[in-house]
Every structure is written in structure tokens, then in C-alpha cells.
Specification:
single chain; 91 residues; alpha+beta; Phosphorylase Kinase, domain 1; 3 helices; 4 strands; DUF4283; DUF4283 domain-containing protein
């Protein structure tokens, strides 16, 4: 545990987090996106990630997951309220 805590203390952000924003896709439908970087050497199991976050977040309108490679994942939400609840850590 001490080794893990020591590793966390070495991490820092080079830039502050920006505000969230919506991106329009070709269909013109507004989507709300959260990006994640998984800090693991193991291969990501997208099915396990989808199942885990579906149970954890319990969104009202669902979300889709896009594997962007290099342990990066996009969570795409159709509803801004779901994103707000996820960011606030609320059920």
C-alpha cells in the first residue's frame, strides 16, 4: 500500500482540467463525452469495462463506449444530465 501511495504522490497534472463540452457528430445529434485513460499494463477488456460502469453509473439514457487505443476510452452520453451525475459521483 505504501508503494502505491508513493506512486500517487509522484503524479501531477501539467495543465488544469478544462470544462466539458459537447461535440456534434455527422447526424447533428449532440453527444456528451468523457475521456478516460486506464493506467494499467494489462489489455483492456471492453466488455468488463462496459458492465462495470453500467452498474456503477446507472445512467437514465445509457452510454456507449469507444476504444481509442493506447488504454484510452471515450464514454459517449446522449444526455448531459447523466454526465453531470457521473461527474458528481451521484447514483
Amino acid at each position: 500500500m505504501e508503494k502505491l501511495m508513493g506512486s500517487w504522490e509522484k503524479l501531477s497534472l501539467s495543465e488544469p482540467e478544462g470544462s466539458k463540452f459537447a461535440i456534434r457528430n455527422d447526424s447533428g445529434v449532440e453527444k456528451h463525452i468523457l475521456a478516460a485513460k486506464f493506467l494499467t499494463r494489462s489489455a483492456l477488456n471492453m466488455k468488463a469495462i462496459a458492465k462495470t460502469f453500467t452498474l456503477l453509473w446507472k445512467t437514465r439514457k445509457g452510454f456507449e463506449i469507444r476504444d481509442m487505443g493506447d488504454h484510452r476510452v471515450l464514454f459517449v452520453f446522449p444526455d448531459a444530465a447523466d454526465v453531470d451525475r457521473v461527474l458528481m459521483g451521484e447514483p
